[in-house]
Every structure is written in structure tokens, then in C-alpha cells.
Amino acid sequence: MKPLVSVIVPIYNVEKYLSKCIESIINQTLSNIEIILINDGSTDSSGVIADNYAKNDSRIKVIHKKNGGQGSARNIGIELASGEYIGFVDSDDWIDLDMYEKLYNAAMNSRASIAICNRKVLDENNNIKTVVNIKKKIIENVKNNIADYIIEYLLYKHTVVIYNKIYRSEIIKENKISFKEVKEVGSEDALFNYEVLFYVDKIVAINTTYHNQLAREGSTAREYKIGAMNRTANLIQNIYLYSKKIGKESIGIETAPIFLIFFQQWNYNLIKTYGNEDLFNNMVLEQSESGKNKYFRMAEKSFIFDKNIKKYISKLGYSSKGKVFMNLYMMLNLMGLYRLSIKVRTIM
């Protein structure tokens, strides 16, 4: 019998957390699932733990590979997946036991290509840090309104992450959608979701929390490595190039500035919180390096000069004063006046 959902779990050195993650998947109330564990070159006992679970559950496949990053591990999982839908779980997270039953039923009942649920973020003492709530809703005709969906839902309410969602498998496989590495594009989830949207008619969201994300020190989401803005520049470049590749260049032109604004704030917060050196000098370095990317500059120019972009900026919550500051910030960057632009940015 064909699995209803294929669950892909990339694994790297998470022996402390892995059993909790796997237990939450194998005990799902939706039993007709396929569980694909990709051991991405772990040097601890994670691979052994995965193998032991596979011995006792025929639904589990374990793949051992050389370390290549989370994106490459997920891509192997996609190749192997045989389910109607595909879900992703990070190996230090866990899910409520009825998550996939509720998401699958919601997708079936609404004939949606993607189903989404709430998620929460907890620390290692099980204290809730954040709860991301989304309204119960069916969004139709998504592929013809991609910019609207991104600004209204993806960046905030539905979030750019992939692990609170299931995706219709045939969309990913038939269109050969795969993951880049986070070290390349900063947010491989954002790019993956962007590419998927071109083939999605309907998305269903349910207002119940099923996904639990562990906020632990040492995770990729909680560290700053120099080059964050350069990785965002690569993300912007990929957005432009993929849109052009499939004959939808205008969508890339429309959406790239939206991603730029979102991830500039993301990176600013990352550097401010986790940067070990001076915020100002780090920001100057980051901005000057990313400014060498022509696609990054294209997005900045669009932000300043394209009147159609202005309506989206308002929806991101910027006040009139904030828009003036952002325009000035972008203009100074384009002029190469990075120290001055960062002074403007740090007082916003």
C-alpha cells in the first residue's frame, strides 16, 4: 500500500535528541506513513540509534552518507519518498502524535497541495519561547498570486520553514524541486517554498499546534557566521534565476525585494544577538560584500524605484517614517556609502 505521507528526517550528531524525534513519528495516529532517516555523516551514535529503530519498524528506511549538509540529506529523502505527501522533521524537534493525520485529512478534504499547522518553539527546559499561530483558512489560486501569498502568509503567519507543512509529492518530484544548502543561500527553506509555490493551486491552514521546535544553542538558527548577507544575496539571485528559468521572470522581480527586506532584518537580528564582534563593523562588512552581487543590487533598486513594491512594504508593517529610512538606507548602499548606510540602519 502506498504511504500517505513520507516523513524525511536529516540527522547529524543529535544523539541526545533523536529518540524523542523518532518516537514522535513512529507513534503517529496516521500509521500508513514512510519514515526516511538520512544519517548525514554523524560522528556520534545517531546512526546506530536510527538503525536500531529500523530493526523494529518496517516503515523506517535508514540511509548513511558522508556529511554534505541538511539540504543534500533532504534531497536524498525526496528521491526515495513514495508517499502522496512529503513532510520534513528536523532531528532535534518532535511532533504531536496526530500531526500527520490532521494535516493529511485537511489536505484531502480541501484538495490542497500544501497543508500547514501552528508550531511552537521551546528551550531545552521545555519552556515555551514562541508560539506561531495561523488562522484556519483555505487559500486558493496561489500560483497566480505568489507575491500576495508571500507577503500575506509565508513570511509571518505560515513562516518560511518547511517542517510545519506537508507537500504533495508529485509537485516536488515532477518539477525537480530540491534544496540548496544553508551555507549557500542562508534560508534553504525559503527558496524551496518559493519554487514550490509556482505549482500550487490551493493551500490549507489549520489553527492547531502540532510541531515542536527545540531552540538549542549550537543549532544553525542560533549562530552567526560571517557572510550572512552574502548568503542572502545568493538567495535573491536564485529567486531571480529560477523565475527566469521557468518563464516567470516578472514574479522574481516582484518578490525578490520582499525577501530582501525580510532577510535583512533577519540578519540584523542574528548579528546583533549572536555576533561576537562589533555590530556596526560586522554590518558594514556584510553590506559591502553583498553589494558585489548584481542581483542583490537589482532588488535594492526595485525597492527604491518600483512603485508596485511600495504596497508590499506597507503590508510588512513599515510606517511612513520607516519607509523613508529604508529608502535612504538602500540608496546609500547603492552608492557604496556603507558606513553611512549602517549608521542609518542601526538607528531605525
Q: Can you tell me the overall shape? A: globular
How many helical stretches? 15
**Could you give the distance between the termini?**
56 Å
User: How much strand?
Assistant: 15-25%
- Give a short account of the largest sheet: 10 strands, mixed
The structure class reads: alpha/beta
| Mean pLDDT score | 93
H and E string: EHEHEHEEHEEEHEHHHEHHHHHHH
Low-confidence stretches: none
Question: Which bin fits the share of residues in helices?
Answer: 40-55%
Let me know the number of strands: 10
Radius of gyration, whole Å: 20 Å
Characterise the protein shown here.
By secondary structure, the chain is an alpha/beta fold. It contains 15 helices and ten strands. The chain has helices at 18-26, 46-56, 70-80, 99-110, 146-154, 169-174, 182-185, 188-197, 228-245, 249-274, 279-290, 294-305, 307-315, 320-334, 338-346; strands at residues 5-11, 33-40, 60-65, 85-88, 94-95, 114-122, 128-132, 137-140, 165-168, 202-214. Strands 1, 2, 3, 4, 5, 6, 7, 8, 9 and 10 form a ten-stranded mixed beta sheet that branches. A hairpin with a 5-residue loop joins strand 6 (114-122) and strand 7 (128-132). The protein starts with a strand and ends with a helix.
